[in-house]
Amino acid sequence: MLGACGNSGGTSSATTAPHTAATSASTVYRWGVVGNKGALSQLQLQTPTAIAGIHGRVVQIATSNSDGYARTSSGAVYGWGVNSYGELGDGQLTPYETKAFKVEFPAGVTITSLANPMPFDGALAIDSTGHAWGWGLNGADDLCLSGLVEKQPQQLPLSDVTLATGARTHALIDSHGTVYSCGSGDAGELGNGSTAPASTPAPVVGLPSGVRVTALTSSWEGSGALLSNGDYYNWGYNAAGQLGNGSTTNSALPVKVNLPDPVAEVFQGGSGPKNGQTVAILQNRGVWTWGNNDRGQLGIGSRTDSQVPVQVHLPKNVVFVSVSSGGYATYAIDRTGRLWAWGDNRSGQLGTGSGTAFTTLPIKVGLHLTQVSSTAQNVAGF
Question: What number of H helices and E strands is found in the chain?
Fold first, then answer.
């Protein structure tokens, strides 16, 4: 396992009162680069580097384009990265932070789940009472809140929430067994049959009735829902075949992806109109992917897009048990805990420290992890 590389430095020059950092570190790593108005080169890392400031045992991580978040076993949440729109949820606005700081929820709130991926320049979390909380930028109403910038977590107008995910332009939330969406609907990513925006939660239309949704995933103008029977539906942007249905036409209604076996885990990647791909682990342990492949992020040995699912070229005797995908790169953890990555490396997001611009097949990063999360060119793991 890769040893801790240390903290990359102190906090940025703050424009408000300084933060109070937590004192005990956990082995959480970040690499790649973050940014909301272009990449912040000061935060670019070519290899996984340990984050300071997290107190407690980490049980989940999640990323946005500009930040990383960690949830501990006690229900606390810590964040690091850009804070110009209140993404760290501590009531302050600062350019960025390289240490982790505790998100300030109201007294008595215990967080049991983080949205993964997180909304653009924002965050969503679910508490132990089934309420969802959002903070950061709400520019497209993608936090389902009323304010433009929420510097501290605000409760969303939904109850009995079990799942949440977000991306640039929108969010998806499962409440009382119904999937709701809010934000921009330009490419049909709200899944309600319309391309109009929704400032308040609108129900997704067209998912099978009577079948429970077990996971939600999202990307730039893209959405997906995994059902308890292993069926996977996606909707929204489709310029490179992101919907896996053999076309390049957007869909404002859920489309079932035809795969050779039920899906066990699925993750959408994509950070803009020039990328967008999905990777899925099937119950037979096969790994399939579809969509944009400009930088080799499909892991099929070429850079040819695919409008239908194709099988990832797995290394010999390697079984992947968890997957994630960012803007132009994809990640997997095998059953021994080894991290693998493929796709673009122009921002160091493969974490190998090499000058290789991209790879079209999975390569070992040199790190053992429990979970990995990526959004755009930002990557985190523990």
Answer: 0, 28
